Amino acid sequence: MPPFRFPFTATRWQVVTYLLGVALFSISFLVFLNSSISFVITERIGQRSRVGDAVGTLGFADEALALLACPLWGMLSDRVGVRAVAVAGYLIVGVALAGLVMSKNVYPDLLLGRLAFSLGGAATATMVTAILPSMTLPVQGSRIESRPLSSQANGHNVTPSISSELTITPTRYQSSSSRQESRDGPIGETTDASTSQLAGLVGMFTGLGALLALVVFLPLPARFQKRGATSGEAVADSFFIVGAVAIVVSLFCFVGLRNLPGEEHKGWSALFGKMKEGNKYDGLPSSSENAEDEQLQLSYLHLLGTSVRLGVQDTNIGLGYLGGFVARASSVAISLFIPLFVNAYFISSGICNPDPNTPGMPADPGEVKRRCAQAYVVAAKLTGTSQLVALICAPIFGYLSGRYTRFNVPLLLAAFAGIAGYTAFGLLKSPDPSSEDGTAGVYFIVALLGISQIGAIVCSLGLLGRGIQGGDAALDRAMQSNGTPITSPSLAPSSRRDSVAAGANIASTVLNESSPLIPSHIRRIQLSPHSSRARLKGSIAGIYSLGGGAGILLLTKAGGVMFDQVDVGAPFWLMAGFNGLLFIVGVVCSVIEWAKQKREENFISWQRDMERESTPVDAGGGG
C-alpha cells in the first residue's frame, strides 16, 4: 500500500495550527463581540437609551478602521512575517476584549476598546489569507515534491533539493521533471489542488469558528448568572475568559507557525531598514547579476502599488479580489438583511406590531428577537439553514476548485447560485414557509445563498493562492518543452532568419550539458526579489481584506437605504447584481485564460519545429 502523501510544503503541526488556530478563531471573537456589545453598554456601563445608535456607531468605526488596517497589516507581514502579525493580532484581540468591559462610558472608552479590537481583528482576518500560500508554496529555486507523512513527523521543514536552478543542467532537469510528472501529475497541478483543498478546509473551519462562538462563548453570561453572579459581573467574566482564549491562541500561533516556508529572512529587524548583509532571497546563492537586488528592500508604497496592479494584470488575483468583495457582502446579506426582511413581513402583515414607543423598523437586528419571537424563529431557521449548507459545501468547493482549475467553473457555479438565490429571495411574498403566501421552497433559496457565499470565499482564496504561486509556476510550465527555457511569446522572432537563429541557440543550450538551464537574462528575472509574488502575499491578502470590507460597507449603507426607500427586497437584488458582475468577469477571465493557453501552445509548437529544423541531420543515416 503506498504511503499517505502530505499535500503541503508546511509541516503537519503548521497546518494544524493554521486551521485550528488562525482559521478557526478568525471570526469567532468577532461574532462573540457583535452579539455581546449591547450587553456591555446596558449591563456594564448602565446606558439604557440610544443603545442601537451606539452599537451602530461602534460597528461602523470598526469597519472603517479595518479598511485601513487590513492592507497595512498585510504589508507589514511582508517585512516581519505572517507569524508575527498573527501573534500580535490575537494578542491585541485578547487585551481589547478585557479592556472593553472595564470601560466607564461609551465615548471614548468603549469606542477606543472597539477600535483596538478592530485593529487586532484586521490582523487575524488578513493572515487567514496571507498564510495560505505558505502552506503549499514551493520554495523557489528547488523542486519540492509531496513527501510521505512519516518523513515530516520530526517537525522540520521540507528540505530543498541539493541541486539549485543555477547548477541543474537540461538533462538533469528533464529527468527530474519526468519523475515529478509521472508521480504527481504535471508540475503545478498538485500545488494548485492542495491550495484549493486547503481553502475549502479554511472555509469550513471559519464556519466552525462562528458556530463555536454561538455554542460556547455566547452562553457564558447566562451560565455565570445561574451560579449567582450579577448580570454585569457575568458579562465581565465572559469577556475576560474569551480574551484569555485569544491570548492562548496567540501563544499557539507563536509556537505552531515557526519556520514557515518562505518566511526565513523576515523579522522585526526588517521593519524599516534594508535586509541585513548576507541575507539571501529564496535561499539562492549570490551572483554578480543579482547582488545589488539582494540588498534591496521593497518600500511599503511599492508593496501596496504592486499588489493593486497585480489585480489588473493577473486574472487569478483580480478575480480573487472580486470574489472576496462578493463573499463578505454575502455575509452581511445573510446575517443582517434576512432578519430585517422577515421582520418587515411580520410587521406589514400585522402579525407583529412595532413598539408604539419606538415606531419604525429597528436599527439593530437583535431587536427582532425582543419585538416578535415568531419573526426571530423564522429568521433563525433561514439564516441557520444557509450557514449549515455553507459549512457542508466548504470542503466540496475546495475539492472542485482544485479539481477544475481551468475556466474557474466552481466560482462561476457559485456566482450563478447567488444570482438565482438572491433574485428569488428578493421577490418572495412571504419568507415564512408556514404562512398562506409562503412555501417550503424558501429553504432551497437560502441554501443557494449559502452555496454562493461559501463558494465565493473558498474559490477566491484558492485563486489568490494560485495567483501568488503563478509567477514561479509559469516559469516551470514554460520549461517543460524538452527541458528548454522558453521566453515570452511576445518576444518571438518576427522573421524566418531570426527564427532559425533562435532555434540554433536553443539547440546549443540543450546539447551543452555544462551550460546552465536558465539563460542569464531569464535567471535575473527569476531571482530578482521584485518578481517573487511570494514576497507580496501579505500585501495581496491585505488588498483582498480591503475589498471584503468595502463590500460590507457598501451593502450595509446602500442596501439599508434601498431597503427603506425602494423595496424590502432591494438589498437582495443588489447582491444578485454583485454576483452577476462576478459571473461576467469570471467568464471574461476564462476566455482570456483560454486564449493565453492557445497562444502558449502554438508558441511551444513553433519552438519545437524550430528545434527540429536547426538540429543537424546525421549523414550516415543513423546506422
UniProtKB/TrEMBL annotation:
- Signal sequence, renumbered to the chain: none
Instruction: Spell out the residue ranges making up region: Disordered.
Output: 169-192
Q: Which UniProt keywords apply?
A: Membrane, Transmembrane, Transmembrane helix
State the InterPro entries in the record.
MFS_trans_sf
Q: Is Kinase one of the keywords?
A: no
Residues that span the membrane, as ranges: 15-42, 80-103, 115-135, 198-222, 234-257, 325-347, 409-428, 440-464, 541-560, 572-595
Q: Which domain of life is it from?
A: Eukaryota
The protein in question is named MFS general substrate transporter
Source organism of this protein record: Rhizodiscina lignyota
